[in-house]
Amino acid sequence: MRPLFSSKRFLSTILILFISGFVLNFFMQLSTVNLNILQSICWVIHFPWIYLIGSVFFFLLLLISLALMPITYFGPAIFFLFSIVCGFINYKKLNIVGEPLYPWDFLLIKNANEMLQISEGIVSPIELITVVTIALGLIWGVSKIPKVRTSLPIRLLLILIPGSLITGFIIVVVGNQHLLASIKYQNVYWNQKSNYTQNGFVFAFTANLKQNMIDKPAGYSLEAIEKIAAKYSADPEDTALDVPVEQPNILYVMSESFFDPTRLSNYSFSSDPLKFIHDEQNSTPSGYILTPEFGGNTVNVEFEALTGMSMYFLKDGSIPYQQKLVKMSSVPSIASILKERGYRTLAIHPFDETFYNRNSVYPILGFDQFISDDDMKNTERITSSAYISDLSAVKEAVSELQASTAPTFLHLVTMQNHLPVVNGRNGTSSITVTGPDSSEDAQLGAYTQDVKMSDEALAYLQEELRTIKNPTIVIFWGDHLPGLASAIYANSGWDENYRLEHETTLLILANYDIGKEALGTLSPVYLGPTVFKLANQPLPPYYKMLSEIQSLLPGLSKGVLLDSTGIVTSLTAAQQELLDDYLLVEYDILEGDNYSQDLLFY
Length: 602
Description:
The protein has 21 helices and 15 strands. It is of the alpha/beta class.
C-alpha cells in the first residue's frame, strides 16, 4: 500500500477532487431548477463568483473527507454519494412541497425509518436505478484504484486548513453578508425557492444555518406588549350561543392530506365520495381552511391551529417546532389556555412520537398526555401496507372522551391519507373518476377512495358523539392538499390559483345545537377563538385580538389575503394596525421576552 504523498498521485488526487467540487455544485444547482441544464448554465454565466466559491466549498469538504479515512479514496467517494443523495432529496422536495432542502431537515435523520415509509412510491424506478447505478459505479471505481494511505501529518493539514476556510466562509455568509455584495449575493430569505435558485445551494443552505424565523419589528418593548394587552383586555366578550353550563369537550381532528376532490373542475365522479360531509355542510358550521402549506409540512398547520401564531410573519421555509419550540420551556396555546381552566389536554397521532419532535413539543404547548402509534389500543389498518386508519384513530379518540371524567381538549392528527397515494392501499375504489387526462385518473381515483374512508370515519364519529355524556364539539379540517400529479391540478386551473390549492374542508360537529353558521374561508390561526365562541368560553385577550383580525382578514397567508368580499390587494389602515399588533405579539413569544404569555393568555 503506497503513501499518497510519495508520488504525483497526490497532485492528481487534488485535481480530481477540485474538478469534483465543480461537478457537485453544478449538480446541486440542477436539482434546484428541476434538472434544467440550460437554466443552470445561465446561472453559472450570470453568477460566476457564486458558482466558483460554492464549488471551492465542495472541494474543501472533499479534502476533509479525504483525510477522515485512512484509505484515501473512501472518504471522497462516500461524500460524493452523500451529496448526490442530498441533491436528489432537494429535487424531490421541491417538486412535492415546493421547498428546497433546509439545514433543519437533517433533524429528521433520527426518523429515517419513518421517512422511508412515507417516501415509498414517491421515487420512480428510473430515479432509483440512477442513484443505485451511481453508487455502484463509485464502489467499483474505488475498488479498482490502488490502495493508498495518507500520513497523519498530511491528514491533519487536510482537516485544519480546509476546516478553517469553511469556518470563515460560514461566518461571512451567516453574519457579514454585506461583504458579499460585490459577487451579486443577496440573501432572499423571504422566498427560499428564489434564494436557492439565485444564490445556489451552498450559499442559501449556509445562510439558513443561522436564520431567525422572524425579524424584530420596530417598536418592540414591554410597554408595547402591555399596551396591546390593555387594548384587547378591554374588548367585550363575544360568544355565539347559549350552551350547557358545563365546559364542553373540544376535539380537534386535523385530517392528513384531506381536501374535497369533487371541487376539481373537469373531473367527474361516479358517486359522491364525501356523502356525509356534503349532507352535513348546510346543517352545521362549515367552510374552508386556508392552509399555509401544500403537499406537506403538516406540522406548520398544526402550529397555527394550536398556537394561533401565523406562518404569514415567519420567514420562508420555517418549521417552528424544530427550529424554536423544542428549545423553549413553555409556549401558550389552546391546550395551555384550557389546561388553566381545568381541562385535561391530550394529543393523539397514529405515527412515530418523535416525528417533528412532537413528543418534546407537546408538553411545551401544555399537553398532559401524548398517545402515539405505540400507545394506541386501536391500530387497525385498511390493508396491511396502509397507515393506521382514520376509523381506528377516531375510535381511539372516542374511547378517551368516553372515559374522561374532566372536560377534555383532544387534538387528533390522522395519518391514513399520507403520501404516497397508492391504488388499493386503503381498499379497492368503488368510485370511477373521469378527467381530461386518463393517465391521471387512476391516482385521483385512489385518492378519492382514501377520502371516502375518511368521510365514513367522520360519519362514525358523529354517531358516537351521542354516546358521550358531556357536551362535545368536533372541529374537523384538512391540513393541506396532497402532492398529487401536477397535471391533476393544472387540468382544473388550480396550478395558477393559490387560494384553491390551499383550501381544505372545515366542518364543525357537536352533540348539542351549535347552529349552522357559514364560516367562509379562514386560516387555522382562527380556530381557537372560533371554537371558544361556539363553546361559550371566555376569550383571553389574545383570542380577542385574533377575532378582530379575523373580522377584517379571515384569510391570512403569504400567497393570498382574504377579507369578507374576496382577495385583498392592498391593506387598509385598520387591517395594517391589527397586523402590526399581531406581529409584535408573535415576535415577543418566539424571539422576544415572552411578556405576552402572562399578559394576553390567562
